[in-house]
Write a structure and sequence with these properties.
Blueprint (H helix, E strand, L loop, with lengths): L7 E4 L2 H5 L7 E6 L28 H18 E11 L2 E3 L2 E3 L2 H4 L5 E9 L15 E8 L13 H4 L4 E3 L15 H11 L6 E4 L6 H8 L3 E6 L2 H12 L5 H8 L8 H6 L7 H7 L1 H5 L10
The protein binds S-adenosylmethionine.
């Protein structure tokens, strides 16, 4: 039954398609849903993000309930021990903060980590707030048995830290793609050198996650409501070899240049902050306000 969907881009509504998939088949999902932004007011640096198949403007409570339903369907189709990387951002509606945690906590997923994606560019050029240069990536986990923690990442992946820094994709006709590095980092970190897993992106847009999955040797399922984007994704997957070098640049970042033992032997920082401050009081001294020169 799954053969009908395997290594395909399916054009249709995310919930309708997901409901046709069997339980416990997906290893890892990477996705960025529509944000319900309706960013058409003055002050936005980016052009209004308009998708070709659907409007990105719903009553916020309807939007959040829809996201909860999609996330719970993704939970059902994911294998125990599997992961979902969910890219979203902080938004404000009439001064009120709308935080992804508002609905993530209402889903079945264990929230394993909140990763900051420093996009190195601001979307909002007005000064109501400090320019928002970051988005969030939520690493969501489906427990395998009773443990809510799951397997450890290999050090070469964990060392990439919880702040990821790369600019948004520019060379892509889709209005809101993420860069290839992002799904490559997510998939490679949790799957490591395993192959032939199943990766799904239920809002696949131009197919960035699917290209990453293919390059890393996995099967994929893509879903998008827009026929135009489905065609775009299929075309990209056909030419995936053109993008291998970008994925390789990301993979090359997953290295351990020095082990913990080597750093300890060289007297370098090993992660004990209290010890660092005791040994190097001058670090704290720098921040004493009485020391700051006036005028
Ligand atoms: C932020 S974009 C994803 C971009 C993608 N990550 C990429 O790199 O190209 C969100 C996508 O969700 C799709 N979409 C919106 N509503 C949908 C729905 N109900 N079902 C399926 N896809 C939907 C839009 O067409 C759009 O391509």
């Amino acid at each position: 039954m799954i053969d009908k969907y395997l290594n395909k881009v399916i054009c249709g509504d995310v919930l309708t398609i997901l409901r046709n998939l069997p339980d416990n088949i997906v290893d890892v999902s990477v996705t960025s849903p529509p944000y319900n932004k309706g960013e058409n007011k003055k002050g936005w640096l980016v052009a209004n993000v308009k998708y070709s198949g659907v409007s990105d403007r719903l009553p916020e409570d309807v939007y959040q309930q829809n996201q909860i339903d999609v996330l719970n369907e993704l939970f059902r189709v994911t294998k125990p021990g599997g992961s979902l990387f969910y890219n979203h951002k902080l938004r404000w509606e009439r001064g009120q903060l709308l935080h992804p945690m508002d609905w993530l906590r209402k889903t079945r997923w264990v929230i394993r980590q909140e990763i900051i994606w420093d996009r190195m560019i601001a979307a909002n050029i007005r000064g109501w707030r400090f320019w928002q240069v970051e988005e969030r990536i939520y690493w969501l986990y489906k427990p395998n048995g009773k443990s809510l923690i799951g397997d450890e990442l290999k050090p070469k992946h964990a060392l990439l830290t919880s702040i990821w820094r790369f600019p948004p994709e520019r060379n892509n006709p889709h209005p809101a793609p993420f860069p290839l590095e992002l799904p490559v980092r997510c998939i490679y970190s949790v799957m490591d050198d395993k192959k032939e897993g199943l990766v799904i992106d239920p809002y696949c847009g131009s197919g960035t996650t699917l290209v990453a999955a293919k390059i890393l040797g996995h099967n994929y399922i893509g879903i998008d409501i827009s026929e135009e984007y489905c065609r775009l994704a299929e075309e990209r997957i056909k030419n995936y070899e053109d993008e291998i070098r970008f994925a390789e640049e990301e993979i090359a970042k997953h290295v351990v240049s020095k082990t913990f033992k080597q750093r300890k032997e060289a007297g370098e920082f090993t992660g004990k902050y209290s010890k660092l401050n005791r040994d190097k009081p001058e670090k704290l001294h720098l921040f004493r306000t009485s020391e700051i020169k006036q005028g």
